[in-house]
Amino acid sequence: MIELLFKRKNFYPDEYKKTVFDINFNDLLKKGIKNIFIDLDNTLIPYNISEADEKTLKLFKDIHNLGFQVFIISNNKKGRVKLFADMVESRYVYSAQKPFKSGFRRALRKVGHPDPKTVCLIGDQFMTDVLGGKRMGFYVIVVDAIQRKSEKWYTKYNRHLEKKILQRLKRTDKEFYDRLNLQEKR
User: What are the φ/ψ torsions at residue 100 (nearest 5 degrees)?
Assistant: First the structure.
């Protein structure tokens, strides 16, 4: 049903990794990526945590040292997003309304309108992050959600739609599905 509204290719991430810590950022540099747009909730921290831990602080320091411009791009409210972004010394876009393009366009303006092919979007949801990022022409990496128990009702609904899309993807493009090596628990 959802594929009637959006092209199937917009649900195909470029990579799957278990966590953000499994991403090889040096490889992204080799692919011409210069800008990292990364989701906050359940990608970097659970909904019930507000601050970055030491491991996450080190990750952001390493990403910055590689020369990436980094944006936290979240559908959440300004206070939560700003607090985290300040901790990891990154810029941010709040109330991004993913998968719609407006939040992504705000981030692109702040970066200086780079070529979308130089942007990597990292997130945990197919219905917001993958769909929105692919519609923008970004390189997209999907990761597992950190903690599903604390998700809001609308995220749980998105997970239901995501499950249907992944089942169809597995049926209609098993080779691609297998190549992504997605975890069955998604």
Answer: -65, 155
